Amino acid sequence: MYFEPTAVLDRAALQRALRAQGDAWYDLVTERCTHLFAAAPVFVTSVQLRQMREVIGAVERVVGLPEWRESLRLMPQGVLPYAPTIHVPVGAYGNTPDHAPHAKGVFFGYDFHLNSDGAHLIEINSNAGGGFLNVLLIDSQRDAGLPGKEVSVENIEQAFVDMFRNEWRLARGDAPLNSIAIVDEQPETQYLYPEFLLAKNLFERAGIEAFIADPSALQARDGGLYLGEQKIDMVYNRLTDFLLQHHPVLRQAYLDDSVVLTPSPAHYARYADKRNLAQLTDEVELRVLGASEADIATLQSGIPQTRQVAAADQEQWWAERKQWFFKPNSGYGSKGAYRGEKLTKRVFDEIMQGGYVAQKLATPGERAVCVNDAEPVTLKYDVRCYVYDGQVQLVAARLYQGQTTNFRTSGGGFAPVRVVE
């Protein structure tokens, strides 16, 4: 692996790119998001990139199996072992016969830890943030002379616009896409609000009216979804209420198909619920679902073993806790996630009450970084592949210190990924 600490970002070029977005946007980023962009790139090998693509491909094929979707469709009836913990009516996942969303789901994030044992998929996100920000970062470094090659499709901004237009076409055919609402709770207070502004500007340059809104501002009337007097064609969903249980207006508009919602509860259920990782690492269950032997082998080697936590096995979990990383079933942003060796007995007892999976530890990669001309420090990193309809659009990394990824580390944040040999 390439760890050269002197390979750093061209900060002057990055600053120019940030300022080009306007003074207000630049001030927002520099004041609120001090550690949004890392000081250095992350280097991966072509072998590691191929491993990540193979794991993504295997997941996509398994999730695409009729048996996988059927098991999720029947989830409220208890077909899957974790079904009793899901308290939503049939149809809420959007993949029942009477409600089948056509959209593929934008910005799936496949997050990997890379180490000497290969590439390890630690989780899948159905509304991964950072795509627009990483495009800006990549563009700013094109003339920086960094080793290796970036990993993104050509004309990535146009690819993003085409992705949203394809979501619309799948649902509405040749009708024009006139408006998109980027929706999150209290969006102006969100850490990644600057990204919402980038997305809004990109959509508007493409001739699509774009709005940033709290879901409480949306109204259902006249067979559609409205923001004030503006009819909303599509919602780019950035909510972390993945099943829309606390947003009844948006949820009903989704179920009624009066708005195109992407990503949706169906995408979350199929891909991002952490309990799916237990299915994806269960060799016996994968065969029952009809997965190929080649895909089973890829998933066994590419995803750390994941199990649902049960209080009946409490003594064994406590004895083996240092081998595992505990994650809440519907967690996001590393909230409520714990490395077993750092667990207190109080937190462990809470985890044993249910609602968690445990994943075998796969150590993250490490990168030596020079920060402000000081001696190199070692930061951890994970690698995120942004995926649409099974295709990798962009690969980026997050550098950090601590137990999980964050944006509080000097020298850390989003980092461009470069492929070197």
Describe the secondary structure blueprint for this structure.
Elements: H1 11-19, H2 23-32, E1 42-45, H3 46-63, H4 66-73, E2 108-115, E3 118-125, H5 131-140, E4 149-150, H6 156-172, E5 179-183, H7 193-205, E6 209-213, E7 218-221, E8 224-227, E9 230-232, E10 234-237, H8 248-256, E11 260-262, H9 265-272, H10 275-280, H11 283-289, H12 293-302, E12 306-308, H13 314-320, E13 324-328, E14 338-339, H14 345-351, E15 356-360, E16 365-369, E17 377-388, E18 391-400, E19 413-420
Parallel strand pairs: 1-19, 5-6, 5-10, 10-11
Antiparallel strand pairs: 2-3, 2-17, 4-19, 7-8, 8-9, 12-15, 13-14, 13-15, 16-17, 17-18, 18-19
Name the beta content range: 15-25%
Radius of gyration: 21 Å
Task: State the helical fraction.
Answer: 25-40%
CATH fold label: Rossmann fold
* Number of helical segments with 4 or more residues: 14
- Please tell me the overall pLDDT: 89
Shape: globular
* Main beta sheet: 8 strands, mixed
Q: Low-confidence stretches at least 5 residues in length (pLDDT < 50)?
A: 75-99
Structural class: alpha+beta
Number of domains: 1
CATH superfamily: Glutathione synthase, substrate-binding domain superfamily, eukaryotic
- Count of DSSP strands: 19
Q: What's the CATH architecture?
A: 3-Layer(aba) Sandwich
Terminus-to-terminus distance: 8 Å
Q: What is the CATH level 1 assignment?
A: Alpha Beta
Textual characterization of the structure:
With 421 residues, the protein is of the alpha+beta class. It has a single domain (11-274, 365-420), classed as Rossmann fold, CATH 3.40.50. Helix content is 33%, strand content 24%. The protein is built from 14 helices and 19 strands. Strands 1, 2, 3, 4, 16, 17, 18 and 19 form an eight-stranded mixed sheet that branches. Strands 6-5-10-11 form a four-stranded parallel sheet, covered by helices on one side. A hairpin with a 7-residue loop joins strand 16 (365-369) and strand 17 (377-388). Helix 1 crosses helix 5 (131-140) and helix 3 crosses helix 12. It is globular. The termini are close together.
